[in-house]
Design a protein that fits this description.
Length: 209
């Protein structure tokens, strides 16, 4: 008995499921039938003369629009083609100018590098000139000091002259005293001021050259 009850309950559940599925199929069938009726109506309409006339009018309108678009395109093409060509020519000219400017910039960069190189060399030459000027100043100072020494020696020589400035006085003195010439002669133990001057000048020139 329990087994039968279980089977009956199972059948009832299956029956409910089948009922739901059947109802769903009925709904879908109704929808399909409605779609069929609509399609049939449209098909009948498409087969009618009225629909054919509407399609002819629609096609004529589309053709007219297409022709208008073509004419408008031709007008726009004729109108803007010269402008486009001018713009293309302007672009080419600008590209040429840009290329020329780039070449000029490259040349200027090379010249700038050369100027920097020449400036570096010029600075070195200026330094050499300054060094030479400093050496000349040292030489001038040395020459000036030697000149002062020569002048001083000349002054001392003038003070130490003998009274025999005139040749006839010196001749008479030698006749009176033959040893006077020997007494007046003094062997050169030191360089004269002129000798010292040229010797010092030669020494400095060899040192600074």
């Amino acid at each position: 008995v329990e087994k039968l009850k279980s089977e009956i309950a199972d059948f009832k559940n299956k029956n409910k499921s089948l009922t739901k599925a059947n109802n769903k199929l009925f709904v879908e069938n109704d929808q399909l039938y409605a779609d069929y009726k609509k399609s049939k109506t449209k098909l009948q309409r498409h087969n009618s003369i009225e629909y054919a006339s509407e399609m002819e009018l629609e096609c004529a309108k589309v053709k007219g629009d297409l022709l208008s678009y073509k004419m408008e395109y031709e007008r726009a093409y004729n109108k803007y083609t010269p402008t486009i060509n001018d713009l293309n020519q302007t672009v080419l000219e600008l590209k040429d100018k840009l290329s020329a400017q780039q070449d000029t910039i490259s040349i200027l960069k090379q010249k700038d590098a050369q100027i920097k190189l020449y400036k570096s060399r010029e600075d070195k030459e200026i330094k050499k000139v300054i060094d030479l000027e400093n050496k000349v100043k040292v030489l001038d100072n040395t020459v000036y000091k030697i000149g002062q020494s020569v002048q001083t020696m000349n002054m001392l020589n003038n003070k130490c002259r003998t009274s025999f400035e005139k040749p006839e006085y010196l001749k008479k003195a030698k006749q009176a005293n033959p040893r006077l010439l020997y007494d007046l002669f003094v062997p050169q133990r030191e360089k004269s001021s002129e000798q010292r001057f040229f010797s010092e000048l030669s020494r400095i020139s060899h040192i600074n050259v």
